[in-house]
Amino acid sequence: MTTHANATGRRVGMRDVAALAGVSTQTVSRVINDHPNIRPATRARVLEAMASIGYRINNAARALGTATTRTLGVIASDAALYGPSAGIVALDGAARAADRWIATAYADAADADSVTTAVERLLTQGIDGIIVLAPHARTLELVRAAVPHVPVAALHSALGAQRQSEGAALAVDHLVSLGHRRIARLSGPADWLEASARDRGVDEALARHGLDAGVCWEGDWRTVTGAQLAPDVAAAVRASGGPTAIVVANDQMALGLIAGLDAAGIDVPSALSVTGFDDNPDAAYYRPALTTVRLDLVGEAHRAVAEALGLPQAADPASPRLVTRASTAAPA
Q1: Can you give the pLDDT at residue 131?
Q2: Of 19, 147, 176, 183, which is least surrounded by CB within 10 A?
């Protein structure tokens, strides 16, 4: 029998719980293992007894009897960036809503050995499924090949990629509605799924409006990169026929770009309108406050958790939404 220390340091076990709840140890075991044939009142009484004496469920022990640890593995990379870190938070909330928790392993998404090592670490914890929160398509392929017996889902599914494209198109539509016809772009890394989806949305929207693709720079999502590219963007704005607006692939690069443009004497939005993507918590406090695109990351997380657990399909994530603030205006 597995025992646990309560707040006083005394070891307590299922027999203590059973005695306090007035049930058998078999009933306590069934509650722990989510047996369906337990009356709600009995379940509540057992759970209350567990809480009152400080009994903690041993996840590994429960797995021996149920073939499930109620744990989802998450393989993540670039967690210092806002998008991946927000994705982990959303997945943790979605897992808890499904009465699960997550174990996270970090990997260099561009390094196959790193991804394989992350998978192996998760497998030692007896996870019930894996969700991939990594930027490259090959990462998902590597994980699926390594664990054919474990369900694997991606945070950003095909529908998620579609939502990314739709969001980028919203930014272009907004700029065109203001009167912009020369729209530049600061993209994310070419080998990231999110970057390619957002680029696709920009291209499709420009074509729909009969506009040519403007000047394009490639960044790496970081704020400092936006600042470093600002002199080149400023020079393009000053050139004859230069852009009057720029679609930036994430908020962090947009922040750096706006700061760098200010240092270069280019005012946002009177000389150049700027849009971001993600609507991170600081976007409203940029100067000027950033016009950006908000995705339903929580909805995407619930969908991924349902897929990894084989649960009924969660509702599709909501369509992206443009959040209009002060960084965009009609061209001068």
Answers
A1: 95
A2: 19
